[in-house]
Amino acid sequence: MTLLAVERIKLFTTRSPLWCTLAALAVTIGFAALLAGVDTENLPTIASTQFGMNFGLMVIMVMATLAITTEYRFGTIRATFQAVPNRSATLIAKTTVVALFAGIVGELAAFGAVGISKLIQSGADLSINTPFEWRATAGVGLVYALAAVISVAVGVMIRHSAGAVSLTLIYVLLVESLVALIPNVGDDIQKWMPFYVVNKFLTGDPDITNRPIQEGPPPSLSSLSPWWSLAYFAGFALIMLLAALFTANKRDA
Q1: Which of 92-106, 153-167, 181-195 has the lowest mean pLDDT?
Q2: Where are the transmembrane segments (predicted)?
Q3: What is the tally of structural domains in the chain?
């Protein structure tokens, strides 16, 4: 508990988490407000309110990456490891705090997007009843939390802020999309890419709103069921964390 308290103090005494949180909420809720206000011909759906979810996810992943790389940048990680020689325990505590915070931000963003859409378009049916609707909203926090674990792991392995942030964003924004362009096998590979798979958790089985494909998170054609998609993503996050712990214990701080 002491380690968790220490990491909580570290996280909330720096400016980047605050600004990243505000940015994530602004883009997620802002896009929902924009769609509800501009598209007056179609009432918003639960799925369309989450149009900005991926933009908020990028910001949260940057925040999670900086939470660890700034310690390496300013050398505070050395003092931390001297005070607590068990590096694994320290990094797990940091990962836990960052993931919990990311999950809370995800929930605020998702339900805030639904709320602002209902405020703008009062006639829209935005009640959350079906399993799909619950996953599309409450599930956002779970995805944000696991993505934060991956980001912290990348930060531990890379240690350099610019490099870690660049690698994370390039992978999520480009690699998983471009891999589908590989002849013959690209589509099959993409179906097992972690961020592509986890979109099945948010958008699959079934999206009863029949929304246009451009509204909301992109649908996933993964062969896994929604909850197995989340489990697959969680497994990938765990593997990344274990790799980061192994790396941190094998080299100098």
Answers
A1: 181-195
A2: 18-38, 50-70, 91-116, 136-158, 165-186, 227-248
A3: 1
- Quote the pTM value: 0.91
* Three-state SS letters, the chain: CHHHHHHHHHHHCCHHHHHHHHHHHHHHHHHHHHHHHHCCCCCCCHHHHCCCHHHHHHHHHHHHHHHHHHHHHHCHHHHHHHHCCCHHHHHHHHHHHHHHHHHHHHHHHHHHHHHHHHHHCCCCCCCCCCHHHHHHHHHHHHHHHHHHHHHHHHHHHHCCHHHHHHHHHHHHHHHHHHHHHCCCCHHHHHCCCHHHHHHHHHHCCCCCCCCCCCCCCCCCCCCCCHHHHHHHHHHHHHHHHHHHHHHHHHCCC
